[in-house]
Design a protein that fits this description.
This protein is an all-alpha fold. It has one domain. It is built from six helices and two strands. Strand 1 (2-3) and strand 2 (6-7) form a beta hairpin. Helix 1 (16-39) runs antiparallel to helix 2 and helix 4 runs antiparallel to helix 5. The protein is elongated and about 75 Å long.
Length: 188
């Protein structure tokens, strides 16, 4: 139908209801993906939420735009994100004092701090708690071995930096997952 010189032609074979449903599906998918990225601040498994949302979307659309190769790439990114987050958190503690006990104390402190901090700052306290827990865990472990306060504080700062770097890398992987998904859908 042409009105006033502007061409408005309906797409052959696509009803308005189908187009609206498709748009709602995309909005829901990318809304859940955004929640996955933001959920990382709260200590939630955001990368796995993104993967699950992509899997549900792929299944509902018959794997037409999100194929198994895309889901495989998203799974790979989610797995790499988890491994890197753990590695950076562990290496941060080891960087200052190469002892297994310090690493374990930093990781356990990070977990406990994240759980204790979750109710604060509207949930963002989980990240703050995890950083503080890594710091305290490593600091107390080094001090418990009879080392100086300066060495203990250095170990705590290193553990906290490692935990923060792990979070940043995981968040970057989550954003890369969203971009991979958007690319697969918008430019098939």
């Amino acid at each position: 139908m042409v009105q006033g010189g502007v061409g408005v032609e309906p797409v052959q074979g696509v009803s308005l209801a189908d187009a609206a449903l498709s748009l709602l599906g995309l909005l829901a998918l990318f809304g859940v993906c955004a929640l996955g990225v933001v959920g990382l601040l709260f200590g939630l498994p955001g990368t796995w939420v993104i993967l699950a949302a992509a899997g549900v979307y792929a299944w509902l659309t018959g794997f037409q735009t999100v194929a198994s190769g895309t889901l495989g790439a998203l799974f790979g990114l989610a797995a790499v994100a988890e491994v890197l987050e753990f590695t950076f958190a562990a290496r941060g503690a080891v960087g200052a004092t190469p002892r297994r006990g310090v690493t374990v104390a930093a990781l356990v402190g990070s977990l406990v701090g994240g759980l204790l901090g979750a109710p604060f700052l509207f949930g963002i306290g989980a990240l703050v708690g995890a950083l503080a827990g890594a710091f305290l865990g490593a600091t107390l472990a080094v001090a418990g071995h009879g080392e100086s306060a300066a060495a203990a504080l250095h170990a705590g700062r290193s553990a906290m930096r490692g935990r923060l770097l792990g979070f940043v890398v995981k968040a970057a992987c989550a954003v890369a997952m969203c971009m991979t998904l958007a690319t697969a859908i918008l430019w098939p």
